[in-house]
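Lab notebook page, bench 4
Experiment: in silico fold of construct C2
Operator: M.H.
Input chain length: 425 residues
Purpose: comparison with the prior construct
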Amino acid sequence: MQHRRLAFLRTALVTFILVACIGCATAFAQDTSGTVWPTKGWLTSTPEEQGMDSAALARLLDFGTTLSFDSLLIARHGRIVLDAYYGRYAADVPHKTNSATKAVIGTLAAIAYKDGLLDSLNHPALDFFGDRSVALDLPGGRGIADLDDERKAKAMTVQSLLDMTSGIDWRETDGRSDTFTEMRRSPDWIRFILDRPMSATPGDTFNYNSGNSHLVSAIVTKLTGMSAWDYAKARLFGPLGISASYWWHDPQGVTTGGNGLSMLPRDMAKIGYLYLRNGEWDNKRLLPPDWIDSVSHASVNMHSSREPDMRYSNFFWALPNKHVYMAVGYHCQLIMVFTELDIVAVTTARDFCPFSKLVDYISSAVKSEKPLPSDPASADRLANKIREISTRRRYDDPVPQAPEIVGRRQTFEPRLLTLPTQLAA
């Protein structure tokens, strides 16, 4: 009788273990990729555990010193392997993203498109602006002055705004006396943009234009009935667990589409991770697949003399030959997505940086798709380097602070735009 009881217990135990294993396997299968979702906070890892070399990352931090980096973050396989801050900057200090803001505005347009609020990315842009659509014979001759301009303006689509091929006459090349500066000084930014003449047929020619992204911000407001910032809180920042500290708006209250968003580097990385995971977050689709495909296969030639292979799509810059695309802000505010290496990298800085060289530094730190043996010496070198750069004071270290806000108007720091002609060598 005792032997039968023991046999029964053994059988029951084996059955329990088998059922438990099947249950675990089923639970894992429900998340087919086993993806880590950093909504409530990033997991961290040693570089070697994610197939990266600590010594190579230490050299990368030295490279960042030469470029006036404020921070450098790298996440692989959904885990942060490097999170370093230079001088006075720290993980809890928001940083101005400058023109990387454009990629966030574009992402909001993609969400509106996925949600059915925008019927097509090829929808005529002027449809959203009513009687502002065409301004003929304006005083001072600043408006669309002939029927050819009118025809071109009516051919402008949301997609041509997203690709910087709107055809609007715009100069944004030197950061000083340019159209962007004129727009900022105008009492009505949207009116200023729509009153510009046309210099090309929409869809034909790349011309960097922060007015395009500001129009997209206004379109997001038209579609959703709320500011782009409020829509971001509801449909992007909220799901991703992002707490953006501030975002500027124009005199009419339209969230600035070209710049003005400040974020923590770890939150910037979440934007990149959303794209790295093909527009899904926590197994829910936020962005349409065709949007991700357009960004990852960017084809609009930016005609950059320093980076001839640079391409553009949906407010993202891309180096297709290196399988990298990125949100880019003036003075090297970057969210970089390495599609083949499963990496997101974020930089904040105060100077220009050579994109290809930075990509190569990061890529060369990847040694394997599998974990590497632990390397205490290299780990110590990296830890010491992180400590060194965080305590090294620089003569130009700022005291981070939010912009001064005066009623519905903000004071703006000059030279915040990203300029394709100023890619540093």
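Observations: The mean pLDDT is 85. The chain has 13 helices and 16 strands.
Next step: discuss at group meeting.
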